[in-house]
Design goal:
By secondary structure, the protein is mostly helical. The protein contains 4 helices and no strands.
Length: about 130
């Protein structure tokens, strides 16, 4: 039975076809929830622990900074390999990257995060940051 036939049968009084249509959701408008199934507004709110939110935010920010640090390091290595940097530039980039890595370690320690905590699992794509 096609959808149109089921709708016509339901409108014409064929209770069996109407019941089938109703079970399949054909011709029905938005479903209304019974009053006992509605979730009270108070239960829909997120119960967020401020410390957990802070830790999550710090973890996210440090993850982004670590990703950028690793990308800058790779770019610097490519430029060194290509020979497009002077010795002074290589030295300056090296010191800057070492200082940034050291500061990241301090921040991770301050917030009680391990390097693994800054890596996001992207499911089938694998981890965000390569394992070193």
């Amino acid at each position: 039975m096609s959808r149109d036939q089921a709708l016509r049968a339901g409108a014409g009084g064929d209770t069996r076809a109407a019941a089938m249509s109703a079970r399949a959701g054909i011709g029905a408008g938005p479903r209304k929830h019974a009053p006992e199934q509605r979730v009270p507004a108070q239960r829909r709110r997120i119960d967020a622990d401020p410390e957990a939110v802070e830790r999550g935010l710090v973890s996210l920010v440090l993850t982004v900074v670590e990703l950028l640090r690793q990308l800058m390091e790779r770019q610097a290595l490519r430029r060194v390999d290509q020979g497009t940097l002077t010795d002074d530039q290589i030295e300056k980039i090296g010191r800057t990257l070492m200082a940034l890595e050291s500061r990241m370690a301090e921040l991770r320690e301050h917030f009680g995060l391990a390097p693994e905590d800054l890596n996001l699992d992207l499911g089938p794509l694998g981890p965000l940051l390569p394992y070193e």
